[in-house]
Design brief:
mainly alpha
Length: 184
């Protein structure tokens, strides 16, 4: 018998965690791992537009870490450990990539706006989704067990995506879109 993608078990607005516990599809845990999945999808788009192989490879590795994170968040914390298989070395990898990119970027002296090139815009979209995922995971951690490294990783990942957007614009020779405040 072939595997079917539809099970009909969610037709009443509930879904099951790994471990069997059923939750409403609008439960904070479902929102959190759903948003991590959304972030992963945006990173797929980012990796598709990146021209530099080293950046593309790192983004695809990040996607694997996010998949692990989603699986952890989709697991019943009463039946499984809350560990997301993330390590401090994963955070260090993001920090090292940020440092490498910032080494070639001009200092940031103004607020910048998303835009200027599709690659830059995609990076900023992913950054915004990452921040939303972080907010949802922080809220979830107030009520249920969540490995603290998940929040730390998402926080660093949003920093990485901001710098990646700047780096891509710089590599493409695209000027940053500067915020213009009102002068009245």
């Amino acid at each position: 018998m072939a595997f079917r993608i539809y099970t009909k078990t969610g037709d009443a607005g509930e879904t099951a965690l790994f471990g069997g516990r059923r939750l409403s599809k609008d439960h904070l845990r479902i929102e959190a791992y759903g948003t991590v999945d959304e972030l992963n999808s945006f990173l797929g788009l980012v990796s598709d537009v990146l021209e530099e192989e080293s950046s593309r490879s790192l983004v695809r590795l990040i996607q694997s870490r996010l998949f692990d994170m989603g699986a952890s968040l989709a697991s019943d914390p009463e039946k499984f450990a809350t560990g997301a298989s993330l390590r401090e070395s994963d955070i260090l990898q993001l920090e090292e990539a940020i440092d490498r990119m910032e080494a070639v970027l001009p200092p940031l002296k103004n607020f910048i706006l998303p835009g200027g090139h599709i690659t830059v815009s995609y990076c900023h979209l992913a950054r915004c989704v990452c921040r939303r995922a972080e907010r949802l995971v922080v809220a979830l951690a107030r009520t249920e067990p969540v490995d603290e490294i998940v929040v730390k990783y998402l926080n660093r990942l949003s920093d990485f995506l901001f710098v990646l957007a700047r780096y891509q614009g710089h590599a493409l020779g695209i000027p940053e879109v500067l915020w213009q405040g009102r002068n009245d």
